[in-house]
Amino acid sequence: MSKNMHQTETKEKALLVVSKAADEVWSQEALGQELKNLVVSAGVEVLEVISFNLGKINPAFYIGKGKVEEVADKVKEIEASVVIFNSDLHFAQQRNLEDVLGVKTIDRTQLILDIFARHAQTQEGILQVELAQLEYLLPRLRGQGIALSRLGGGIGTRGPGEKKLEVDKRRITDHIGYLKKDLKLIISYRATQRKKREKQGVNTCSLVGYTNAGKSTLFNALSGDNQKTSSILFTTLDTVARTLALGRNLKIVLSDTVGFIYKLPLKLIDAFKATLEELNYADVILHVIDSGNSDIEKIKNAVEETLRNLKLNEKPTVVIFNKIDTIPYYRVEQLKKKYPGSIFVSAIKAEGLENLKEEVQRLVFKDMVEATVDVPFDRMDISAYLHDKCEVLDIEYLQEKVIFKIRANVDKLAYVKKQGFRVKEV
Hints:
- The chain is α/β, with parallel strands linked by helices.
- The protein has 3 domains: 13-163, Rossmann fold (3-Layer(aba) Sandwich); 202-364, P-loop containing nucleotide triphosphate hydrolases (Rossmann fold); 368-425, Alpha-Beta Plaits, CATH 3.30.70.
- Helices cover 41% and strands 21% of the residues.
- It has 15 helices and 14 strands.
- It has helices at residues 28-41, 65-78, 91-101, 108-119, 123-137, 162-165, 169-199, 215-223, 266-271, 273-276, 296-309, 329-338, 353-364, 382-389, 410-418; strands at 13-20, 45-53, 82-85, 104-106, 204-209, 240-247, 250-256, 284-290, 317-322, 343-344, 368-376, 391-397, 401-409, 422-425.
- The chain is elongated and about 90 Å long.
């Protein structure tokens, strides 16, 4: 029976190494806490954290030789089985560190990939994670192949199985090509679905936010769905879309997306392009923030930086402070003063959701106009569309036709006109 890299037989014990560069805006404490959260989400026990300011990067070890010796001594002292860096390591640095430390050493990207592999459920999610893992692995192959003796299971080894790792660079490169082709098919399918929605005049909103901000809980509360929620980071990897009723016969499609983190590695953004590109077609982005987070401004900026990298920073955005039930009333008032125009909700207690829906409706349907539509009796099939996609204000039955008075987005009016109906704005 081959080993499944989704399983860890014994809980690993980690020493974390947190280095703060000179231009880093986050504190050592904040960087360390984020790394701890990631490591715990990977199912690994944190034994101790070594933090320090990073001067010049050592090309051989990333950190200075003195720090390498300090880490090596600590590994022996606490009997750590893995060392995890909060930075990205070059493959030569990673190899050199393992040789000196004598234990498996992984970097931030490999850690995140491990967590992604734990939560990938759908074919799309699995393909995206495997692609990212193989692209990460490829430059780390050396000689006759990677040192498989170090891949006996545990963190940093989930995803591609040993059989895939045993192949040479050529076969891995070929496999990456196959994965990209499969993902192109998924992208093509998504494009077809989007065109269908656009033809029907369907509007969309997408939830984004720092991982563990409560996006999936809010998604469930709004849509009535039962999407999996968890305090573990990156529970949601695949875009999930559901219909959201806003009242007065107005509906949109609401989607939940993968959570962001500080400096989300660009290679992961590229791998998850099939998922994240849905954000390009959203009419409104809903940025969800955990009200109880101690570093709100930092995580808010981290998400906004990712949106800028995706060229989405110009889209209409609603900032939503979730989990207001977890903080005192005075703190909510402070946040309202500091972030005017934001919406404050408790998804788990269904508080503030109507205010949120009203704001979404205002932004999505800001171009709505009132009009009359003349519908002959033999064309009453359009009635379902008018009731479903527009706000029907009045219906007048005449001898040869029915006149619908509606309020609708200009795009939906254009659709009705294309079907051959007489539309008159009032």
